[in-house]
Amino acid sequence: MCGIVGYTGKQEATPIILEGLRKLEYRGYDSAGVCVINAGHASIRRSEGKLANLDKLLSENPTSGEIGIGHTRWATHGRPSERNAHPHQAGSIIVVHNGIIENYLELKKRLKDLGRDFKSDTDTEVISHIIDEKLKETCRFEEAVRLALQELRGAYALCILCESEPGTLIAAKKGSPMVVGLGENEYFVASDIPAILAHTREMVFMEDGEMVVFRDGKAAFSSIAGKPLDKTPRHIDWSPLMAEKGGYRHFMLKEIFEQPRAIRDTIAGRLAEEEGTVHLEELKIPDADLAGIDRIFIVACGTSWHAALVGKFLIEEHCRIPVEVDIASEFRYRKPIVNDKTLMVLISQSGETADTLAALREGKARGAKNVAICNVVDSSIARESNGVIYTHAGPEIGVASTKAFITQLVALYLFTIKLGRTIGTIEREKGKAMVSALIHVPVLLERVLELNPQLEKIARSYMHARDFLYLGRGINYPIALEGALKLKEISYIHAEGYPAGEMKHGPIALIDENMPVVVLAPKTESYEKVVSNMEEVIARGGLVIAICSEGDAEISAKAQDTIKIPMESEGLTPILLSIPLQLLAYHIAVLKGTDVDQPRNLAKSVTVE
Ligand code: AGP
């Protein structure tokens, strides 16, 4: 949540910061602001609403300077408004912040008692005041920041400027992501890689409790307490183009269509077809230890949690190890029973979700082994977990997750094969069949994507519905949940996902002739049961949109609308079924005129608890 960008070098800072903020707008978009310093004078521009408003303001009232900071906000404390937009200035100090300062009320009271006047309702403003107070004591910017940071509780990624030391930019991190880009005689700081990818591929990932001081053309990394640090840059091979729309109207649509490529990249170099297994050295768990695991917890939020639910079906069926799936924000507070025979699998596209990160730390503290499934290289969760299975979806910009989800399913499938082959529950021939089915999926997915025009047409028929129900069974029940989440996230239509067999225990009361019900009915083990559930809907006048296997005449004869997809083995149906649901949600949202890539109230990366 919230995106921050900083720049210091020999170029005009404002355009670089704005361009970076544009790439970070998915992190929050209720207000935005910049500050540049020129000849010891700070120019701040802030505006409510999207970045376009700030752009307009800057064209009417430009700024100039070669050092600056910027922010795009997702409100936590204080409603979206210009006065709550960052940067916040107090005296000489100007701050942009991502995170939450938990003790801000206590600090604010103390600062008010000292006669300090607050101009916003944010927690962030206390940071600028407290640094400015320390500056009065020490007269040194860097020292003032170090002292002030020791008084903050909570999470932050900060970029800080000082009018009385106009050539210095300081950035600090604790609990919120931050990456530093190394250019030629210039430096960039940002919350996320895409913001600065157009300028450099050499990046340093900051750890919690670290800060960096950019001064006199140099970057000095240290701990907040002042211990110098030698940080090694990483080369990032994402291309800047991967973070562009590439001719599509929305990032979401582009990302939906990228899914065959994303799957190919995720399985590339990992399959051993002949041996019927996969290589996942990145698990970093010796086979002997894998064999000793007696329970698995998969922990995640949102869409990643839906992937986790699919993972439970896969692992329990093929590996016969009990799996518990937890919503990350619940996991850490329910005193989970884990020990060194427990494996925790943390799933997160961004690798920065605060709840998932906290669950990882909780599990580690209780002695569990852990592995992450992440998309963003070197993100906090990726760095803090013992092993990482990267999903190689490439940067996902649309707030509604699509290609990251699909590749999470692929990663879980790979993990299942690896685990099953290691502990002997999947023998070689079965492993070969599973691997070859997976190889075939991208081609099938390309065929499913050809259904796009049909889904647009169906979307037109149902776009005015007030509510939607999604039903699935077994391994496809989580896909019903995901279909409903996609629709509500971007179209703002109320939608519920249910296990089809559970419908008669309550939700059936909602069904009438205005209720579209999306039924996932591929030819799997539970097919006949799903058909019966569909009949129950039809009998009550509900409008059925069925997604079934190619060649299924029975369903076509009964449902209002039928979408037919090619079938693979049951374990891979969640991947194929997800695509029509993504496209249906996308087209309904476009027809309703919502902001598909940046739906209201949401942020791509939820770095607050
Ligand atoms: C997905 O469409 C959502 N925007 C959201 O539920 C997301 O999956 C969730 O916030 C978890 O994010 P993560 O995968 O980056 O941890």
List key phrases describing it.
609 residues; alpha/beta; eight-stranded antiparallel sheet; six-stranded antiparallel sheet; 19 helices; globular; binds 2-deoxy-2-amino glucitol-6-phosphate
Question: Which ligands occur here?
Answer: 2-deoxy-2-amino glucitol-6-phosphate
CA-to-CA gap between the ends? 11 Å
The biggest sheet, with number of strands, parallel, antiparallel or mixed sense and barrel status, is: 8 strands, antiparallel
Poorly predicted regions are: none
Helical coverage, percent range: 25-40%
Sheet with most strands: strand arrangement = 3-2-4-1-10-9-11-14
Q: So how many helices?
A: 19
Radius of gyration, CA atoms, in whole angstroms: 25 Å
Quaternary structure type: single chain
Please describe the topology of this protein.
Layout: E1 3-8, H1 13-24, E2 31-38, E3 41-48, H2 51-60, E4 67-73, E5 88-90, E6 93-98, H3 104-113, H4 124-138, H5 141-149, E7 156-162, E8 169-174, E9 179-182, E10 187-190, E11 202-205, E12 210-215, E13 218-223, E14 234-235, H6 251-257, H7 259-267, E15 271-272, E16 277-278, H8 287-291, E17 295-300, H9 302-319, E18 323-327, H10 328-331, E19 342-348, H11 354-365, E20 369-374, H12 380-384, E21 387-390, H13 403-423, H14 428-449, H15 452-462, E22 467-472, H16 477-491, E23 494-499, E24 516-521, H17 527-539, E25 543-549, H18 553-558, E26 561-565, H19 573-592
Parallel strand pairs: 17-18, 17-19, 19-20, 20-21, 22-23, 22-24, 24-25, 25-26
Antiparallel strand pairs: 1-4, 1-10, 2-3, 2-4, 5-6, 6-7, 7-8, 8-12, 9-10, 9-11, 11-14, 12-13, 15-16
Helix pairs in contact: 3-4, 4-5, 7-13, 7-14, 9-13, 9-16, 13-14, 14-19, 15-19, 16-19
2-deoxy-2-amino glucitol-6-phosphate (AGP) binds at residues 301-304, 348-350, 353, 356, 399-401, 489, 602, 605-606.
